[in-house]
Amino acid sequence: MSQKALVIETAKAPFIIKSVPILKPGAGELLVRIMAVALNPVDHAIQARDALPNVKYPAILGCDVAGIVEEIGQGVEEHAKGDRVFFNPDWRANHGGFQQYTVISVDHLAKIPPQISYAEAASIPLTFCTAVIPLLAANPIGAGLNPTFDPTVSFKADSALVIGGSSSPYSSSNTSAIAKSSPIASSKHSDYLKSIGATHVIDRTTLVYVAYVQPWSIMEIGYACLAHGGQMATAHPSPPKPEDAEATGRKTYGVFASTRIPSNIEFGKLMWKNISKLLEDGIIKPNRVEHVPNGLAGIAGALPRFEGGSAGVSGVKLVVNPQETL
């Protein structure tokens, strides 16, 4: 049996659609028919610039997947054919979402609550991991705020400053669920941010004291906002360690936003075990989504939008249905 997949044959090669085999689920795995895959800047960075190390080619990318279970592997008891699930696939093993079917371990997925669409579910995995791993996972991976991912733990007496507040990680994790938050974002997203619990929204466009800020400078600004003993989580995997860190007790945590890498696997299992209930109860919310037409054929044209910053993609996740591929 074969399927259609969007493939990068060699580093920096253009995307092509080709027929590839449909994988068989092994023990403890499911075969999933992909109904939605969200696009991310990392997908464009890998194809255009070969931006991550150790990518094996030919490569099938796609970090955020939602779909329907088609086949059950040996030993799987808690899932059945027809279940709606979402997950962060192992794209390095060519199990990514830019294809019509993939396999996934039952330890790294969750069921989609009835009120959540496939597209909404696909908007969650990578961005949620980006937010919660550096905040909740145990040291040295993260700040250790909730290493057991106990859904009853609350930090509403604490405060958080979110730089890039309308970005997908803030929106999907609903940081206000664990702390009072003041995101920095453009004013056009202020109503949306307050609807998911922000206490204050600081418009990043009105006061132009700095004409251009490098990514490292943003982290330095965030660090400067910390009180003694404060902690900063960043989406950059290798944040700088300032010279005064030990004296002030301030700490920084970066993240490789996947529950599939060895350091994150055990925390990831806890996260996937609890995330469905958090979604069902409205404690966390999916991102707003924008449908990209033409299935896998629409991806190559949509990914360059990430080069435009907020002018290209802002406040939404771009989502494709691979089953629409002609």
UniProtKB/TrEMBL annotation:
Signal peptide positions (record): none
SMART domains on file: PKS_ER (SM00829)
Residues of the Enoyl reductase (ER) domain: 6-320
Family annotation (InterPro entries): ADH-like_N (IPR013154), ER (IPR020843), GroES-like_sf (IPR011032), Trans-enoyl_RdTase-like (IPR047122)
UniProt GO MF annotations: oxidoreductase activity, acting on NAD(P)H
The protein's name: GroES-like protein
Protein source organism: Gymnopus androsaceus JB14
